[in-house]
């Protein structure tokens, strides 16, 4: 019987529980299918620190080499290090990680040569169809000449490339606490920051895919608590928190207060626009703050609003030639990084901006943090479409209110906006709200939640 991949093949990656939902035999078929769909003569493969990652990665490589494809294995790496390898070596790539999901999960993030995304509309649907077919009928016979496997360490080259994109030569000494969450940041941060005037205070740098200290998901405020306390204790200039595969970076200021990813997006956008002579397109998803397009325009750039999700952002960056893109979830995309996302490069921009002046980070980001946001609030619902329809009915026709459906439903007024999006993977609706002041934000947030949870 063909494997049912509907639960593990998402909009832009593969993700599920190992071995319940997928295992090394399926990983091998994914490797063969990836080889066939990309048509590549060679690919690059990397993996995170999860217990199941090395075996799944090797199985994927076996599937690819059986189709005659040469495989470069870069071993333990962050997701953005895999994107670096795909870009620098000009090879399609596969990264084995489930990002911030619990230990029993694993997944594959795939890209074409130059880190171009593979999503449902750009190859993932075809890969899924082949894996389902082959799991039923058996994989095709091996190629006449199997591919080879070579190992290559890309960490030093990845770090050097990142440092080449940000001028850190004249920054003042900084004390930085980094919470790697037992994820891949513990592998990459020491090398990236080596040689900089930075006193590094490491937290949870031991690679451990069982996540013994806290979830490697800095988007959840409870996972920032340890970092916030340590920043205050150390009198540090800032704190950085990375997710499990270290492609996302969250920032905490010297007071231990989280800095919104929208403020970081605006700050980095202003710096990237300055690097490009005050011209360029900047992508932002529809959940980011109103401050992002404002700052982009103030610095001579053109903001472009898009839906949530890295494959959509990367596609829009390629279409528009954008120099930078940011998401509310702390994914940051750079033209000079093959349009791929790298939280590490965003962190270097923050260090450069902070170290290039004498004030604290809180004062620096104030100019980029202009509105009051709710953060993302998830609600479990029985019927996503029914609740979205109820919100539409409640706000449609109200004076001064505009509705759009670029991604879920966005309701906008001159003083506030909110967006409600269904999760692709769970029976959830995700609410984000923002307003010009806190009482207004609280009011509109609670109004929307009352309808969602009715």
TrEMBL record:
Gene3D superfamilies: Alpha-D-Glucose-1,6-Bisphosphate, subunit A, domain 3, Alpha-D-phosphohexomutase, C-terminal domain. Its cofactor is Mg(2+). Keywords: Isomerase, Magnesium, Metal-binding, Phosphoprotein. One of its GO terms (biological process) is carbohydrate metabolic process. InterPro entries: A-D-PHexomutase_a/b/a-I (IPR005844), A-D-PHexomutase_a/b/a-I/II/III (IPR016055), A-D-PHexomutase_a/b/a-II (IPR005845), A-D-PHexomutase_a/b/a-III (IPR005846), A-D-PHexomutase_C (IPR005843), A-D-PHexomutase_C_sf (IPR036900), Alpha-D-phosphohexomutase_SF (IPR005841). One of its GO terms (molecular function) is metal ion binding. Residues 376-448 form the Alpha-D-phosphohexomutase C-terminal domain. Residues 7-134, 156-256, 263-371 form the Alpha-D-phosphohexomutase alpha/beta/alpha domain. Pfam families: PGM_PMM_I (PF02878), PGM_PMM_II (PF02879), PGM_PMM_III (PF02880), PGM_PMM_IV (PF00408). The keyword Metal-binding applies. Belongs to the phosphohexose mutase family. This is Phosphomannomutase/phosphoglucomutase. The lineage of its organism: Bacteria, Bacillati, Actinomycetota, Actinomycetes, Kitasatosporales.
